[in-house]
Amino acid sequence: MADTLTRQERSRRMASVRHHGTTPELQVRRLLHSAGLRFRLVSERLPVKPDIVLPRWKTVVLVHGCFWHGHCCPLFRLPGTNTKWWKNKIDTNIARDRRSVERLLEEGWRVVTVWQCALKGTTRLGAEELQTLLLKSIRGSAPAVEVSGRLASTRVR
Ligand SMILES: [Zn+2]
Fold first, then answer.
1. Residue 61: its H or E element
2. CA distances (Å), 126 to each of 23, 137, 153, in order?
3. Nearest-CA neighbor of 115 among 65, 153, 73, 74?
4. pTM (predicted TM-score)
5. Would you call 115 helix, strand, or coil by DSSP?
6. How far is ligand 1, taken at its centre, from the CA of residue 76, in Å?
7. What is the pLDDT of residues 69-114, one digit of tens each?
8. Distance from Cα 147 to the centre of ligand 1, integer Å
9. Each residue of 11-20: pLDDT tens digit?
10. b/e map of 71-92 (b: 16 or more CB within 10 Å)?
């Protein structure tokens, strides 16, 4: 019995380690890297700090958590307590994101925003589908592209 518990405990710990090593940014970096795309993680000449910079395509990739960045998707739910405070906080984040994208576009960068719901949960896209979408967005000509998950239901805040 004690052994079983230990094993469970160990596997729980390992699962949490695995989870730690697969942040959304890391997932996107791996997909781009395996497609042969070269990128940087920082560029001091940019007005904001994006997650991934692809100088060759003059494109930056932002990987957004759906909660903190207020995505209208199944992963976002305004907390039931301190709701007003949270709404204010998330709205501030949304406004800041909007300004960041505008500044990047003004400086001639293209912006690809990857939402967390494309990477996790029931709305997650398949790895191949996601990679194809990312490559198309990065090499394409649209100034700003958003990659979202398959939305099971659209939540309107
Ligand atoms: Zn989302």
1. strand 59-64
2. 16, 16, 18
3. 65
4. 0.80
5. strand
6. 7
7. 999 998 999 999 999 999 999 999 999 999 999 999 999 999 999 9
8. 9
9. 665 555 444 4
10. bebbbbeeeeeeeeebeeebee
